[in-house]
Structure formats: structure tokens, C-alpha cells
Design a protein that fits this description.
12 copies of one chain form a homododecamer. Chain A is an alpha/beta fold. Chain A has helices spanning about 20, 25-35, 50-65, 80-90, 125-140, and strands spanning about 1-5, 40-45, 65-70, 95, 120. Chain A contains 5 helices and 5 strands, in the order βααβαβαββα. The interface of A and B includes residues 100, 117, 122, 131 and 134 of A.
Amino acid sequence: MKILVINGPNLNLLGKRDKDQYGNISLEEISDNLKKEFPDISFDFYQSNIEGELINVIQLAERDYDGLIINPGGYAHTSVAIADALSVLKIPKVEVHLSHLVNREYYRQKLITAASCDGYVSGFKELSYGAAVYILMNISKKR
Amino acid sequence: MKILVINGPNLNLLGKRDKDQYGNISLEEISDNLKKEFPDISFDFYQSNIEGELINVIQLAERDYDGLIINPGGYAHTSVAIADALSVLKIPKVEVHLSHLVNREYYRQKLITAASCDGYVSGFKELSYGAAVYILMNISKKR
Amino acid sequence: MKILVINGPNLNLLGKRDKDQYGNISLEEISDNLKKEFPDISFDFYQSNIEGELINVIQLAERDYDGLIINPGGYAHTSVAIADALSVLKIPKVEVHLSHLVNREYYRQKLITAASCDGYVSGFKELSYGAAVYILMNISKKR
Amino acid sequence: MKILVINGPNLNLLGKRDKDQYGNISLEEISDNLKKEFPDISFDFYQSNIEGELINVIQLAERDYDGLIINPGGYAHTSVAIADALSVLKIPKVEVHLSHLVNREYYRQKLITAASCDGYVSGFKELSYGAAVYILMNISKKR
Amino acid sequence: MKILVINGPNLNLLGKRDKDQYGNISLEEISDNLKKEFPDISFDFYQSNIEGELINVIQLAERDYDGLIINPGGYAHTSVAIADALSVLKIPKVEVHLSHLVNREYYRQKLITAASCDGYVSGFKELSYGAAVYILMNISKKR
Amino acid sequence: MKILVINGPNLNLLGKRDKDQYGNISLEEISDNLKKEFPDISFDFYQSNIEGELINVIQLAERDYDGLIINPGGYAHTSVAIADALSVLKIPKVEVHLSHLVNREYYRQKLITAASCDGYVSGFKELSYGAAVYILMNISKKR
Amino acid sequence: MKILVINGPNLNLLGKRDKDQYGNISLEEISDNLKKEFPDISFDFYQSNIEGELINVIQLAERDYDGLIINPGGYAHTSVAIADALSVLKIPKVEVHLSHLVNREYYRQKLITAASCDGYVSGFKELSYGAAVYILMNISKKR
Amino acid sequence: MKILVINGPNLNLLGKRDKDQYGNISLEEISDNLKKEFPDISFDFYQSNIEGELINVIQLAERDYDGLIINPGGYAHTSVAIADALSVLKIPKVEVHLSHLVNREYYRQKLITAASCDGYVSGFKELSYGAAVYILMNISKKR
Amino acid sequence: MKILVINGPNLNLLGKRDKDQYGNISLEEISDNLKKEFPDISFDFYQSNIEGELINVIQLAERDYDGLIINPGGYAHTSVAIADALSVLKIPKVEVHLSHLVNREYYRQKLITAASCDGYVSGFKELSYGAAVYILMNISKKR
Amino acid sequence: MKILVINGPNLNLLGKRDKDQYGNISLEEISDNLKKEFPDISFDFYQSNIEGELINVIQLAERDYDGLIINPGGYAHTSVAIADALSVLKIPKVEVHLSHLVNREYYRQKLITAASCDGYVSGFKELSYGAAVYILMNISKKR
Amino acid sequence: MKILVINGPNLNLLGKRDKDQYGNISLEEISDNLKKEFPDISFDFYQSNIEGELINVIQLAERDYDGLIINPGGYAHTSVAIADALSVLKIPKVEVHLSHLVNREYYRQKLITAASCDGYVSGFKELSYGAAVYILMNISKKR
Amino acid sequence: MKILVINGPNLNLLGKRDKDQYGNISLEEISDNLKKEFPDISFDFYQSNIEGELINVIQLAERDYDGLIINPGGYAHTSVAIADALSVLKIPKVEVHLSHLVNREYYRQKLITAASCDGYVSGFKELSYGAAVYILMNISKKR
């Protein structure tokens, strides 16, 4: 099974940013930990700060992957364009957030991109990614 | 590890209700499947349609359990009282929803109880429960 | 034909409460009057102040009744949980209100439970119940 | 007893319009059915697409009728002028809607004209008219 | 091909009204220009200030015409009744506006009637009508 | 000096309607009193319940009158079409209301047509008309 | 007859301020003109920029005057305290505005103090004061 | 004098919950302190987490008590049903809150049940109860 | 113990104003009654209609008093400046209202100044002041 | 005449995306069809998913083109930056949408970029582009 | 060059108030520091807690000063009257705030008075004043 | 001292855009003027229309600069992603706007990115940049 993990703006800074909200490990460590924990799955990690580059990668995901995990960062709340790209994609899609959005600023309550995914996981720091893998694996088993 | 799984109003009807939204297996089957999948964990399932009874059970959870999974059903959007009960409780707490709330009625967008949990998982039908167990197990490992 | 008439919080006080809004006869008198006016129909009246008990009764209604009349009292405007229970029930359902909600407090304009019924009747004091019976009888005739 | 039944814009098209919402019988058939079902009552049916003509007829209703049934169609949600005309009229008034407004567009949730009636019935297709007659008959008996 | 062009309130004043918003030619000139530009199409122009008369004409349009162009003027933002009439009509329908609504008063941002058409054209003064004819002609060709 | 006084829906009922809000004299008496009080001015009174007929009369007013008084009744709060007609008219225009709008229903707080007049007078029962005449006379003197 | 004319903040600048909105004569000239036009009436003009001083004067008005004209300036939209003072006062009260509030900033649409007067006149520059005198004179005649 | 003190959901946890908001003494200690401070008054304390049970107790209070103190906890902001029960009750009623609601979450600003009491006291921790007793004693003296 | 009691605009009129809302005794009588009821406490009463004078007095209160009672009248809902002054003051502060704000106009629901006090008491007419003294005395005892 | 046609995010997927909304032909086919239908016009098609690249192209358009057609996709509803770029551009500009925005999600009702164009066409699938060309041609003729 | 620096309510307390928001130096020290830093400029500092006194001073500023700096304190968010006074004044005007308003209470987001200034500076504690002087000096140079 | 000046979309057009809002000098001239006025400071100017490129540059600023000035253009009101990037950066940050945002479109009132800066300056055209330099210099002196 092949999973693409797309990470939006500022997630390259993980580990430096506010640790109460985001945890204190970097995106690389999250990637390494997932590979150890789920050795049978092939992971590709992608990060960009540019909205349109994220759309480019989403558009191509269907060809090569069995599932998508996306942490859209700040674009989760504003990008109709990413939402449109996700809604075309037919593989299983899980949106993840490191922080617990419900307890943050009002403008993080509006979820534009999540509406084009199968569901979302929010609030468990790096475990949000692991839970998403758990979900994709089990969807895959049932098919 | 002992996990309490609290289920709110109408979840006793699972399997009869709108299958597109909720999946077609019953609460008992969810319970059985979790026990098979996670044999090292002890699960107690509780269901009630009565808001105050759910509060009674939440208040007692800390004594006997290492983690809580709660699917508050319709009370997720209205019950300040359940939110207050959850915020007193100090064990890890995961709110789960079978359906994808973001794509449903406007009055399901307001999340009152989730704000008193560590995070939430929404949209993956019975897999939402499994993902919650995955999360609680890993929180437990780190402590 | 068997009709279940469910009455929510404070309707046990009928006849004592503000008579301009609710009329001056009690729930028992409403029940007696309906039985006299519609001798061919069997009526069961149920009243509770507890949200979850009302849900319990709604869940069981399908087995024994051909139609449901519900006056949810104050829960009409707040209970997503009762709305969910009603939406599972497949027999004809009519929501009734004694008072004319359109002319009352703003928080009585939001109708959560009515959306899960076939329609509603509001404003005619005890006649709202009679009109509901008229409707259920005629739906039954057409089937 | 004499009842005037006023019907607003597009109700002359009944039977051609979206049948899920409005039922599949015409205004003439509703009129005929009511006359058969309630032979002791004299009915006059009036329909117009023009707001001001409806007001003209409402203003004259008090002289000749014992009760009014009004289905204001789309004007139910916008016409302060019809509401003003109804509030002057002292005979019993019932507003009816064929469709279940609570489950339709947001702009059908605002009820301007209903506030000037004694109450309203919504959602039971042609039965909404019959229930209104039932209510007017019983109000008349009590006087 | 026969096209009916319905014009709402105050469009009989065209050419006298604020020229920045509406352009400086009259409705008659628009009609004449369209007939010259599209000689193969038969046009009927109708104008009324009365909401219900517009509904009367819309209801009859299906019998005699292949397409409808409507400029509802001020009723575009308030008339649920015209919207209902349009939604029954099955021929292609284009709503046009001379002025650019997006840059005008807040109460011109709510589009009630456009929702019952196939689409709308706004902001190009008399060219909005021509563009609507272009669209109806091409829809007609594809059928 | 010639003044046209246009009265909207239900003002033909003046004297019968709620006297606390509107005073207890009829439109005819208002007309007679103005003619006695201002013998040098020629008044024409017009009343209609039909929105489009009011627009027709407004469109023609410029030709024959030096000033306009309009009491749009319920259309004051909903009619973009009357507002559009008024904004084309270049003679002085005063909107009057018998009742004190600020202390009435929320939907009477939105003033659509007043924005196309020079100003408005509200709350002084029949004196609102007299004050409007006073204003038009003085505007006329200054020119 | 004795009339008190209270003027709120910045009205001492009249004639210097934006002339399109407020006209080009000063408060003194308004006072002089009223005294010439209504020689039988005794006028006292008061102006202050201080909210509490305006309240002090309003509280004393009942003892010495038969009518009150108030132009509260910017306090019209914010001062609950002035509104409270006016509501205690039992003589006839007319609120006036020089400019046409309906066509100005959104925060000038909320009328707090007008609700405690008998009515208001808005938009006719200095004529708004004259119309208020006309109204107070006629109220006085009827008593 | 007999006073009933009704306490809503989670107040049985008092002393364990967030001490900044609620103070650090238990409901039992509050009860004991009141009895010592006001030895001439008879107090009955009742606590339940269940909305309908609170309604049951409120309905019976009139028979046996001279005054009611209610701390509805989280139901203060959501329960139309408790508000309805309180509005039937004719003895003096004081709503109390331990915490200062004005400085808490937005959903604690909406006060549904307080509108059916004579007034409310908020923010003084256990002293809110004492102040309520002070008020009921003095109301009682005046009668 | 020394308590300063600050009273805002129009409270000098107490006893003349609407007696249903405010009770029928004057501010002097409230002052006299408190002095009789609490002979060990020294009270200073201050009243002004001017916002800035109230701020001046609040700024000086810390030097000479052990507690503050403030009834800000209409400024409770609008004055950010008084709220700022109160938040600097470190002695215990209780806001009181004679009337029951929850049941009054919408613009009295916004509490700006209360947020800078320790809590508030609303609805018990003159008893609101007594309850505030009770609270300040008991806060003082605990220190 | 030279026309630049700018297409925003996800329009490169046309033909694969939801065909009910967008029609079933690709962007290339739209381009080819326009060139056949309007052989005298020179068209350049540009597509990008990246907001800033679209801005770059818009900024350069004035130099080489006589008219602009823009379908901003999801950026139509969020991009103040694209709106700013368009407002600098002085050639005629038409915004087009394939789908009928009025009948879609609430967040597609806000039109940010359209306000900087001359007008817009929405709802006619590929014909929206053709209508835009028709409009630009005719604007060009008049100059 | 002569600059008037007007300071609103509670700014006389500077140095005592919450130091995180406002910095820890007094208004006198700000005044002294500016005079040292800009020895060629003549500064007059004025402070009052009374809204109307601030208006009085603003009205007189034009006669004697070349520029105005205003920190309206809490009145920045509520005073239409101060805004009106500022809009009459023709010398350059800069509004300053010590604290960073964007990160404070929602009611500090509404800026009423700033709209009548040339611009504003917010968030840099005492440096906000210095930046305002820098701006006024440079505006002066260009003239 | 080294200062990075980041400029968002369309600021490369400065001097061509609406001169009332933005002034008539180009970004290059602003840069040159600052270098002349502050010869001891080293400035780097960066401009991009692409949201993600701005984020890339912000992320790197900490390494090489002592202070940041950012004019985010249209992204100021929509970009949660830029706000997140700024909040990680620990050097002093000043947001500047050439135009006076308070007097512009409603969608320019929401300030997303400013919340992650130390403060902002708005409305003084090119002087806004100079004031920001003044502020950064003085912050630097105090450290």
C-alpha cells in the first residue's frame, strides 16, 4: 500500500513553532516514526508553502497512491481551490491537524478543505498522522 | 489498559438508522470487533439516551479507566453540562463521530463537548472508534 | 387505528400555566375529548419531563402504533437527540404546538424536531391535537 | 358556515409543479374534495398572482365569511402588506402550506403573514387544507 | 426560434434613469437592435411594473416560446413568487441585468429569481440582452 | 402649488385599524383637513394596494406636480421596485409614516423606499402629513 | 407656548461642517429664523458637547416647557443614558436630524434616543426644525 | 421560612472542579455554612445531573417552600424546558452562579432560565448563595 | 469598613421613573435604608450623569474605600472608558442593577462594565444594593 | 482583436470533474471551439493553479490584448490580491463561471474578483466563454 | 511646528494600568521624552476623561496647531461625536494606540474615530506617539 | 542594523494604481528614499505576488535581519498561512499599509496577518514605511 502525505504551509518549521499546539518533533521525525511503525506501507512526504503547488500534487496523486493524508495548515480554512482539487480525487482521503482546532481562533473553525475528504482527525499532535494511517489501512482491507 | 466507551442518544439504534451516514453495523458489533482487534485492552461499553445519566457515568470514569472514548450523538452540539463533566475528568479523552459532521446540517457544526476532549475523529464510520483506540494506546505508551 | 401522543416537559402542568398561550384545559381533558370525538381510534398518552425518556418511547413507537403525535414542549427548539430519534421512525408523525410559536420568543422560532416529522400544526390550543388526528386518519385512509 | 379560501401566486399551477413538495392534485380538485368532505360548509375559492388583489379580497372577507383559510404562496415570506391586511380582519384565520417549510430554503423560514393569523398548518399537502377546515369548524362550534 | 423577453418594474423608463448604471438607450431601442442583429429569431418584448402580471406571463411562456430572457428589475432580489413561477417553466431561461450588481447596494446581492434560471449575465448594459440571445441560440442548436 | 399624496396598501382602512398606532381618522378626513389647513395648495390623493400601480403613478408624477408625499405602508420595507421608481423622479419627495416605526417590529426598521426620498417623517399620526406639506411648501419658497 | 430646543455635540459648528449633509446656516441663524417664522412661540436654544449635561437639561425641561425638540447629534446612535432621560419626560418630544440618516453610515441607522420621543423628522436640513415646531404646535392645539 | 436550593449538573463535583472559577468548597460545605449563618431558615438542598428531574422538583416546590434558589449549571444556557417550569412557579426565585459568566465562553452569555426568575447573582463564588438568601429573606419581610 | 456607592445617569430621578422596572423609592431612601440596616459600615453615595465624572471618582476610590458598589445605569452597556477605569481599581467591586436586565431591551444585554467587576446582581430593585453590601462585608471578613 | 483567456485552479481538470456542474468537455476543446466559432479573433489560453502566477499574467495583459476573459475558479471567492490586480487593468474584462454559482455552496456566493471586472456570466457551461467573447467583440465595435 | 496631543479617558493612569498592554511609563514621561527627542517641535499635552471636553478641545485645535495626535482611549470604539468633531478639523491628524488592538477584545476592533483621521498607529507602546510625530513632521515638510 | 521589507501582491505596480489610495511613487522610489533618509540602516526589499514565496522569505528572515517590515497587500485579510509564518519569527515585526484601511471595503477590515506582528501603521502612504523604520530603530535602541 502506498500513501501520500501532503503538508501545507509552515509545516516545514515543525518543532520550532509553538510546542503546546503542535508538539516538539519535526516533520522528518513524524515521517521516520510512521515508516518504523508501519513497515509494510510505502510513504511519500511532500511539503510546500505554495497553495498552487499543493494543488498540482493533489491532482497527480490518484495515479500513484492508494490513499492520501493531508495537513493543509492554514489553507484548511481559506482554500476553495484545494477543496476543489481534493473533490476530484477518488482515493481515500484523511485530513489531519496536529492541534485541537475547536479550542483555537474563530477563523480556524471554518473547514473548507475537510468537506472534500472522507473525514478528519484533529488534536492529537503527531498521533493524528498515525490515526490517519490506521484508518486508510482498514479502508484498504475492506475493499 | 482499560477504556470506557460512552455512547449517547440513538446509538442503540445503530444499524437501523440512515446507513449512508452511520454505516450498517450495530453498537454490539463495534464492541465485538474492537475486542478482537485489540485483545490486550479491556473495553466497557455504555449507552444511554438520557443526558444526565451520561454525566453520571463520565463523573465516575476517572476511578476505573485509563482512557475515555465518547460519541455524544446529538448532545455533542447542545450539552454544556456534558462538556463541563468532561472538563473535570483528567484521563485522556477522544470524541468520535461516525458521520462526517462538516458535510451535515448547520446545527451539527457547533461542537460543545469536543472542546473538553483532547481531540476528535469524525467521518470514518466504525473506524472512528478504532482510530480513537489507536490514539489512546499510543498516549498511554508515552507516559 | 392506534395513535401514540407524546408530550414533553411541563405539559403535565397544562391548565395551570399561562392560559392565554396554552388554553385552560388539562392534558387529561385533551385526552378524554379526543377519545370521545374519535371513538374508532385507540389513543395512548405519554408525558415526561426527561429528554432521554421521550427518546426511549419514540424508539419503541413503530412496533405498536400507526401514527405519532408529538408536542415536544421546550425540547422542540433544542433537542438534536429527539430529532434523530424521530427521523429513524417510519410511521406518520405530526408535531403539534398549543401556542402560536411565530408570535413568541425568538428562541422558539428555531424548530429542530419538526424537521424530522411530516409537518406541524401550531397555534390552535387543544384543536392542534384534533387537527393532527384528522391528518393521521386521512393519511391512513389513502394507504 | 361560510369559509373563504385564498390562494396566492402559482397555486393555479398546482398539479404541474414539483410533485414531491406540493402533491399531484390541482386546486380545483382540492376545492371539490373539501366540498364533498364537508357538505354543510359553503366554500369560496379565490386565487391571484397579484399581491394587491389578494389584499383587496382579504379586506372584504369580514363582511361575508365566518372563517378564512389562506395559502399565501411565496408572499408568506415577504409581504408586510398582506400581513397588515390580515391583522385588521377579525374572523378566525388559518394559514396553510402544502409543503413542509422547515425542510426547505432558508428564505422560506421567515413567516411574515402567519403572525397575523391564529395559527398555521404546514407540510401535509392537500390535507393541510382539510385540517384548517377542521379547526375553523371547531372554533365556530365553541362560540 | 421564438424568444420572450420579460422586463420588470421601471424598465419602461430606460434611457431616463441613471445612465452610468443602465446605459442610455430605451427598451424599444434594445428590442429594435436585437431584431436587426438576430433577424432569424422572433422576439416578443413584455414589460410590467406589477409582480403578479409578470407571473401571469411567465406561466404562459412555455406554450409559445423556445427560450426566455428575464430582467426582473427590483423583483430579482425580493420575489419568491416569481422564482416559483420560473422554476415550473421548462424552456431555457436566462436572467439579465443591465448594471453590475456586485458593485451596487447590499440588498441587490441577494438573487432570488436567478436561482430558478439556467444562469445569469450581469453588468454589460444592453449587451447583457445580446449575450442572453447568443446563449439561447446555442442551447437550441445542441438540442 | 400642486402636491400628489400617494398612499400604499391598507391605508384605505385607516380609522378601522389599530388606533394606537395609526390614529382614528380616515384617509378622506386627512385629505379634507389638509385642504382646509392649506387652501392655497392643490392636493391629489391616490391609494392602491397594488405595488405596480403605485409605481405607475409615481412614474407619471413629475409631469403634473411640484411635490410628492408618499406613505408606502408595508411596501416601505420591501419594495426595491418602488425605490427605483422614486429615484428617477426629480421633484421634492417626503416619505411619511403615521406610526413610530422605531418602536415597532424589527422588519419595519429596514427602510428601502425612504432612501430615494429627500427625507422622512415618522410617528405623529395625521400630523406627519401636515409636516410633510410644511416641508414641501418651504422647499418651494426657496427655489 | 414655550419650546426647548436641545442640540448635541458639534452642532455649535453648524455652517462650517460638511454643507451637503448639514446645510450652510449656523445654529444661531436657525434660532433666529424660527423666532421670525413663529412669533407667538417662545424658544430656548441649548447646545452642549457633553452627554451628561444634555441629560441634566432634559431632566429639568418638564417644569418650564410645553414641548421639546432634540437633535442629539452623534449621541442619537449610542446613548442609552439620554434615551432613559427622555423616557421619563412627559411633554411632547420630537427628534430632528438635519441630514438624511438612511443614506449615511451604517452606525447612524441604529436609533437609540428616537425610541423615547413621539416621533422623528430626518433629512430636510434646517426645515427639520421647522417641521418639528409645526408638529408641537398642532399637538398643543388638540389638547 | 423554608428555602429550596436546587443545583444542576456537575455541582456535585464542587471543590474538585476548576477552583479559579468555582471556589474550593463543596456543595455540602455551602449547605452547612448557610445553615449556620441563617439559623432561622430551613434549607433543603437538591442536586441532579438530569434536566427532567430538576423540572420535576421545580414543579413541586410551590407547595412546600417560601423561596427558591437555583443554580442551573450548564442548563442555564440551553434549557427552554427548565425556564418553562420556573415561569409557572409563583414563589420568589433567585438564580445564582458561582463564576462570573460575563467573563467566560460566549455560549454562557445566553441566559434562558434566568428570564423566568426574579433576578440573578453571578460571580461571587459561595457568597452568591448567601446573597440570594439575603434577598429572599427581605422579600419575605416586606410581604 | 467604608463603601463607596456610585450611581450613573438618571438615578437621581429614582422614584419618578417607571416604577415596575425600578421600584418606587428614591436614591436618598436607598442610602438611608442601607445606613440603618448596616450601622457598622460607612457609606458614601455619589451620583452623576456625566461619564467622565464617574471615571474621575472611580480613579480616586482606591485611596479611601474598602469596597465599591456601582450602578452604571445606561453606561453599563456602552462605556469602554468606565470599564477601563474599573479594571485598574483593586478593591472589591460589585455591579448592581435595579431592574432585571435579561427581560429588557436587546441593547441592555451587552454588559461592558460588569466584566471589570467581581460579579453583578440584577433584578431585585433596592435589594440589589443590600445584597451587594452583604457580599462586600463577607469578602472583607475573609481577608 | 486579441483576447486573453485566463483560467484558475483545477480548470486543467475540466472534463474529469463533476459533469453536472461543469459540463464534459476539456479546456482544450473550449479553446478549439472558440477559435472555430470566432475565426477573426486571436485567442491565448492560460491556466495555472497558483494565485500569484495568475496575478503575474494579469499584470502583463494590458500590453498585448484588447480584452480579458477570466474564470478564476475557487479564487473568485477568496482572492483580494487577484481583485487588486484586475482593478489596475484598463482593458475590458469579463468574469465567467461554468457552473451556476447562485445554486451552489454559500461560500461561492461571495464574489471578490468579479467586482473588478465589467460584469460576469455564470451558469451556461462552455457557453459562458462564448457569451464573454460576444460581449468583448461588441464593446470593441462601439469604441 | 506646533502639535497638540489629546489623550482620552484613563490615560492619566498610565504607568499604573496593565503594563503588558500599555507599557510602564506615565503620560508625563511620554511628553518629556518627545520634547527631548524633537526639540524643534512645540508640544501641548491635554488629557480628559470627559467625552465632551475632548470635543471642545478638538474644535479649537485648528486655530493654534499644525498637527494633531489623538489617543482616544475607550472612546475610540464608541464615540460618533468625537469622530464628527475630528472630521471638521482640517489639519493633519494621527490616531495612536499604545496597545495592539487587533489582539484584544472584540469591542476594540470597531474603530469609529480613526475613520476621521488620516491614518493610525497601533501596538508600539510609547513609540506609537513618536511614530505619529515622525509622520506629522514629514507631512509638514511636503507642504 | 539590517531591515527586510517584504511587499505582497500588486505592490510592484505602485505608482500606476489608484493614486488617491496609494500615493504616486513606485516601490523603488520608496526604497531609495528610505536609504537616503536612514543611511545607517541596511535595507533589503522583496516583492512577490505569490503567497507561498512570501512565506518562504519570512521563514528565513530571522537568520539575517534585525527587523521586518511587511506590507502584505491583499493577503493581509485572508492569509492564515502568512500569519502562521510571522508568528514563528522572533525579530520585531511591523505591518504597514499605504492606504487607510478603516475607510475602505468591509473585507479589508479583517486583519489576519497583523495579529502576528508587534503592531501596524495604516494610512500615510509612503510615510507608513518611514514610521515603521522609526519604530524598529527605537526598539533596537532599547535592547
